[in-house]
């Protein structure tokens, strides 16, 4: 498969499985880009493991940010646009990115997708709470580390069985809402009012600096352009993080995992968190790195089943994706190089809107 074939397939998959029902604009743009070799070819400037639709769309978003009075901005709610995708959207977009092809390629080659989807904290919270704290959190692929602030956010879980379940600090600056449903045979999980986190470490090949203007603008560009509420939540979470920033380690998710884990005090339970990171990191290699740690560790995995839990919990056909993309939340315990326990906890909406708890 050529590099062009690969990126066109990824753009098509994004348009068909990930964007529908979430982002009409990105569904429209990715679908057209997949069918247009000249436009799709811009994405081949990225290394193969980073050449995903989200990077292509973020690069375009960043360039529209830089020219907020361009006609295309009318279709970008993040910039105040109010137009829905129509027959003019793709021709305008195509002309825009091809006229700036060199800048698109430069961004795509130099950057990687850094999606700080803070709503995913609502998915991770019940899993982290299962590990007796205080814990030390290590987020792999952390970008700006906003998920490491999960103990500082407020949560409202909407359930049919118990109404609204509240968790987190009562006066949290950031409040997150998540639907919590039960699969047949499942029971509501225990969601404590608080989780205790005593250390926070983020590992990323290029940790994002929220105090740097250009870095911050790129993080905003990675938020899907027709999701202004996500942009607002990002801004609030960034403000919270600046007040108590975590420890960052610049490095590889596999090769430098042990060095990052060493930043978590040895007397704390080590909880390693990944959320939609393993599309960019070979899952098997990452699990081997977890096994090789010289201390017990819990892995809170929020990935597709194929990317994450399948490496430690094979044979779960019920967790494989069909026509709709979804995540799988899991909790795995490693000790002495072995998997001591592994459980799929829930199916999730990828951006934190919903948990379907499993039996």
Structural summary, described in words:
- With 359 residues, the protein is α/β, with parallel strands linked by helices.
- The chain folds into 2 domains: 108 residues; 240 residues, 3-Layer(aba) Sandwich (Rossmann fold), CATH 3.40.50.
- 31% of the residues lie in helices and 21% in strands.
- The protein has 11 helices and 11 strands.
- An 11-stranded mixed β-sheet has the order 3-2-4-11-10-9-8-7-1-5-6.
- A hairpin with a 3-residue loop joins strand 2 and strand 3.
- Helix 1 runs antiparallel to helix 2, helix 2 crosses helix 5 and helix 4 crosses helix 6.
- The protein is globular.
- The mean pLDDT is 94.
- Pfam families: DUF2332.
- This is DUF2332 domain-containing protein.
- InterPro entries: UCP012608.
- It comes from Saccharothrix espanaensis (strain ATCC 51144 / DSM 44229 / JCM 9112 / NBRC 15066 / NRRL 15764).
Number of helices: 11
Described by strand count, sense and barrel closure, the largest sheet is: 11 strands, mixed
CATH-defined topology of the largest domain: Rossmann fold
Global geometry: globular
Helix content: 25-40%
What's the SSE pattern? Answer: HHHHHHHEEEEEHHEHEHEEEE
Instruction: Give the class from helix and strand content and strand pairing.
Output: alpha/beta
- The count of β-strands is 11
Structural domains: how many: 2
Taking all residues together, what is the mean pLDDT?
A: 94
Strand content: 15-25%
